[in-house]
Task: inverse folding
């Protein structure tokens, strides 16, 4: 999922940081430009294709009735996955997901779950028996670093643009009611901000080259109120308390800008 | 969320009788597995966790080996009987993620440059789980690495802080994790003052976030003293023999 980067390139990246420059001439706190297209897959209930720099992801939302989790009978189901397709990078091979991909999917899932973006209590057909499941699957089609934010934005845009079909229970079996769609119960819009820490410099939205030589990574997900809802440190380095404080300020200051972009895709009727 | 259970009463006492800044009972023993190069057993509240460290040794499969440095691998695994409902023994996605975060929490503390083309394997077996098992496992793993004689810059001590009943508390247990508002596990190198593991589930304001890290670090410092004692106890006994 990452490119092999030689020491020369690493030295160049670190040398540039000393002069307050990044390898792709962005500012330290400047995410790459982002394009989002929604409704790219008609068979899905909602979908989004996002390009964050050269990283591109397609997220599709499928909504279907399901059995609730045994301990959460009064809540609908939300499941989010991610897969790096073998066509996304020469180093990716087909096969069961590795720990990087599992972490990626779980952090994206956690961001949406812990912000309570979806009001799952409104997705119950019959308590303890039948609920509505929302399944968000991210297919990564090109890797250029920071898959965390790309998948998070893709999933969020896909959910916001989804229509919720209607089911009614007949003989305890859910039956689809044709042509009756409503909006998904959304409470807040999560925004994930991933920061790389390289030689004590903090850079937002690291690209693949920066990703390869960073010491540690902080992914921070904030909600519409500017509170922190989920957090994950990654990478083989360590971070200081002051860096974490700075990261939270960065995540909170960038959040509203990205939230404004994502909000354009929310269906409201 | 469940509100019927009282997580914190008016006197500031939690559901298991602890104060808000009180850790669960911790006992650690170092060097208890005969075949491992280093090992540790920890009881952290009702968590019972065994850690064995093997290496530095040859890397299998070979293509994983690095000519510049030794590598670290970690497997976090829960025994089927460790939780209320039997757990499928195959590694779950949660276990794979925790394996990764524990590995990355230990990496900053170990010096493997001196052992190129080798691997140090850390095997964590959770015999009984009770909330905060990744922190408990990390504490034991750090001890086991030290017990194996792996060169280290510092110990990694870990402890969670969280939010229950709108209050920031130290060391969240299972009930508090299920019914509480936030859980933040923190791994910390006490002498270097650096954080190596950090995760968060749940909603916190900026002030609460900063306080949470602060509270967790204080907890880690207490854990560190217990870890040190476990190591001293082990090597003191060896000297007598």
Result:
């Amino acid at each position: 999922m990452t490119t092999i980067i030689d020491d020369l390139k690493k030295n160049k990246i670190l040398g540039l940081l000393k002069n307050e420059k990044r390898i792709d001439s962005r500012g330290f706190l400047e995410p790459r430009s982002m394009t989002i297209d929604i409704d790219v897959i008609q068979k899905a209930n909602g979908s989004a294709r996002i390009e964050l720099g050269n990283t591109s992801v397609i997220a599709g939302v499928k909504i279907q009735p399901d059995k609730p989790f045994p301990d959460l009978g009064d809540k609908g189901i939300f499941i989010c996955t991610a897969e790096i397709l073998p066509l996304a990078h020469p180093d990716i091979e087909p096969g069961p997901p590795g720990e990087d991909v599992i972490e990626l999917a779980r952090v994206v899932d956690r961001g949406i779950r812990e912000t309570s973006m979806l009001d799952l209590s409104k997705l119950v057909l019959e308590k303890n028996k039948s609920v509505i499941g929302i399944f968000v699957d991210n297919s990564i089609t090109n890797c250029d670093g920071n898959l965390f934010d790309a998948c998070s934005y893709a999933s969020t845009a896909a959910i916001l643009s989804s229509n919720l079909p209607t089911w009614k229970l007949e003989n305890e079996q859910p039956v689809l009611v044709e042509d009756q769609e409503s909006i998904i119960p959304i409470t807040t819009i999560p925004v994930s901000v991933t920061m790389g820490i390289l030689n004590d410099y903090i850079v937002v939205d690291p690209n693949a080259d920066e990703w390869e030589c960073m010491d540690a990574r902080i992914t921070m997900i904030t909600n519409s109120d500017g509170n922190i809802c989920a957090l994950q440190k990654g990478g083989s380095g360590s971070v200081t308390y002051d860096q974490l404080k700075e990261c939270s300020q960065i995540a909170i200051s960038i959040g509203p800008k990205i939230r404004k972009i994502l909000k354009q895709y929310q269906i409201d009727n | 969320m469940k509100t019927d259970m009282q997580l914190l009463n008016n006197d500031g006492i939690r559901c298991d009788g602890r104060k808000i800044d009180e850790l669960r009972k911790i006992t650690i023993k170092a060097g208890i597995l005969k075949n491992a190069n280093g090992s540790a057993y920890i009881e952290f509240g009702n968590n019972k966790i065994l850690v064995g460290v093997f290496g530095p040794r040859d890397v299998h499969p070979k293509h994983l080996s690095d000519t510049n440095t030794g590598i670290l691998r970690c497997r976090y695994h829960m025994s089927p009987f460790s939780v209320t409902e039997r757990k499928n023994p195959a590694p779950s996605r949660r276990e794979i993620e925790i394996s990764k975060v524990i590995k990355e929490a230990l990496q900053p503390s170990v010096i493997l440059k001196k052992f190129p083309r080798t691997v140090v394997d850390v095997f964590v077996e959770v015999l009984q789980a009770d909330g905060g098992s990744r922190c408990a496992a990390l504490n034991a793993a750090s001890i086991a690495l030290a017990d194996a004689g792996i060169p280290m810059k510092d110990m990694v001590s870990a402890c969670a802080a969280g939010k229950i009943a709108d209050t920031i508390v130290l060391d969240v247990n299972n009930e508090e994790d299920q019914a509480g508002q936030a859980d933040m596990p923190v791994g910390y190198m006490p002498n270097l003052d650096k954080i190596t593991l950090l995760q968060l589930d749940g909603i916190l304001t900026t002030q609460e976030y900063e306080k949470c890290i602060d509270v967790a670090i204080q907890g880690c410092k207490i854990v560190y003293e217990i870890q040190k004692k476990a190591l001293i106890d082990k090597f003191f006994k060896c000297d007598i023999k």
